[in-house]
UniProtKB/TrEMBL annotation:
Domain AAA+ ATPase positions: 39-151
InterPro entries (alphabetical): AAA+_ATPase (IPR003593), AAA_assoc_2 (IPR032423), AAA_ATPase_RarA/MGS1/WRNIP1 (IPR051314), ATPase_AAA_core (IPR003959), DNA_pol3_clamp-load_cplx_C (IPR008921), MgsA_C (IPR021886), P-loop_NTPase (IPR027417)
Organism per entry: Psychrobacillus faecigallinarum
SMART domains recorded: AAA
Entry keywords, A to Z: ATP-binding, Nucleotide-binding
ATP-binding among keywords: yes
Name of this protein: Replication-associated recombination protein A
UniProt similarity note: Belongs to the AAA ATPase family. RarA/MGS1/WRNIP1 subfamily.
Length: 428
């Protein structure tokens, strides 16, 4: 067993050994009570890598003593599924743990799902992707429980590290190891809530440390060099990546500069400069908008600079763009107004274009009744330029208001002009 990775050896055997996830499997939860009473529902476990999806499935099996089979949906074929069905017929009931269940194909489903429905196979699926986006509805409908596992806290991870250092059978307890509380907590912090990563880092640190008088001594320099190699969790196109993009935008919208820079750092460490740049440009118009019309061109310039520079230097103009948007006045009035107009069209609120706005650049337009447009530039109005009071909306939409300006930044000036023109219209 000692040849197996520490993270594998330290996998919990029962649900009482699970670290963290108290919202899912704590002693007061319905799921805990069901399992302790011998009932295991089919379920989907959703969460980032290393949060304990596989461990929870193994612990459920260990608690109930039910036959347990683990498959990966990317590798399992129809024959593997048929073998599970055969085992269920012999045993009466079996737990099937299916990792990466979002990759489950239709042929596998057709073979398995009837047996999940009749209860002979208890399906526990695990996925890093949002099950409501990526898991087939046929599977979701047969899983009574959909549980989102959270990243472990530093305290949760530290419990696992202590357990691994003390356990003489599965862990490192047979080896005298000198490691300080601060060093252990540093490992817990560096894991970013990923139990597998933490245990792997601990094991690597121990094997990289020197031995003195029969005791393995962990040095800060060794630990720090290994921590530098720990990757950022998440991938470029998974649910976590899109959650990072969402968190970045919401932090900018909420004017929290430090949070926005934190999420930008995560995204850039994942290396997808194109997706990050695209989101920043959208934000400059969606969230800053007319309150600071200069933001859009400034963010575009930062993005173009970043693309020309490439990473890691690209982080510099992008950091400027994010701080600028965080601390800028904000308005979403323009695109909200457009969405209202789009919604109006979709709901059937359309009308005939006024005759004076229709195209007249062809012979016969006059005979069709087109014409009568008054050219606003010929009617000066103070320093505004030109304006004339004429109808632009279809007759049945006259008076409809889509745009609702706000008094923020530059839009405060635009709002005053808009309201003044609205007043002129009513004086017609």
């Amino acid at each position: 067993m000692q040849n197996e990775p520490l993270a594998y050896r330290m996998r919990p055997q029962t649900i009482d050994e699970i670290a963290g996830q108290q919202h899912v499997i704590g002693k007061d939860t319905a799921l805990y009570k069901m399992i302790m009473n011998g009932h295991v529902p089919s379920m989907l476990l959703y969460g980032d890598p290393g949060v304990g999806k596989t461990s929870l499935a193994f612990a459920i099996a260990g608690t109930t003593k039910l036959p347990f089979i683990a498959l990966n949906a990317t590798k399992a074929g129809k024959k593997d599924v048929e073998d599970v069905v055969a085992d269920a017929r012999i045993s009466g009931k079996v737990i099937l743990f299916l990792d990466e269940i979002h990759r489950f194909n239709k042929l596998q489903q057709d073979t398995l799902l009837p047996h999940v429905e009749n209860g002979s196979i208890i399906l526990i699926g695990a996925t890093t992707e949002n099950p409501f986006h990526d898991v087939n509805p046929a599977i979701r409908s047969r899983c009574g429980e959909i549980k989102q596992l959270k990243r472990l806290t530093t305290e949760d991870v530290d419990v696992l590290l202590k357990r691994a250092l003390e356990d003489p059978d599965k862990g490192l307890g047979k080896t005298p190891i000198k490691i300080t509380d601060d060093q252990r907590l540093k490992i817990a912090d560096a894991s970013n809530g990923d139990a597998r990563k933490a245990l792997t880092l601990l094991e690597s640190t121990v094997f990289a440390s020197f031995e003195e008088n029969g005791v393995t001594v962990v040095e800060n320099g060794t630990l720090d060099s290994l921590i530098d190699r720990v990757g950022v969790f998440g991938d470029k196109k998974g649910s976590h990546f899109y959650n990072l993009l969402s968190a970045l935008q919401k932090s900018v919208r909420g004017s929290d500069t430090d949070a926005a820079l934190y999420y930008l750092a995560h995204l850039l460490e994942n290396g997808d400069l194109v997706a990050v740049s695209r989101r920043l440009l959208v934000m400059s118009y969606e969230d800053i908008g007319l309150a600071n019309p200069a933001a859009g061109p400034q963010v575009l310039a930062a993005i173009q600079s970043a693309e020309r520079l490439g990473l890691p230097e690209a982080r510099i103009p992008l950091a400027n763009a994010v701080v600028l948007m965080c601390l800028s006045e904000k308005s979403n009035s323009a695109y909200v107004a457009l969405d209202k107009a789009i919604s109006s069209i979709h709901s059937g609120k359309t009308g005939e274009i006024p005759s004076h706005l229709k195209d007249t650049h062809y012979s016969g337009a006059k005979e069709l009744g087109h014409g009568g447009y008054v050219y606003p530039h010929d009617h000066k109005i103070g320093t505004f330029g030109g304006w004339v009071n004429q109808t632009y909306l279809p007759d049945n939409l006259i008076g409809t208001r889509f745009y609702d300006p706000i008094d923020a930044g530059e839009e405060k000036r635009l709002s005053a002009i808009y309201n003044k023109l609205e007043k002129f219209k009513k004086e017609k």
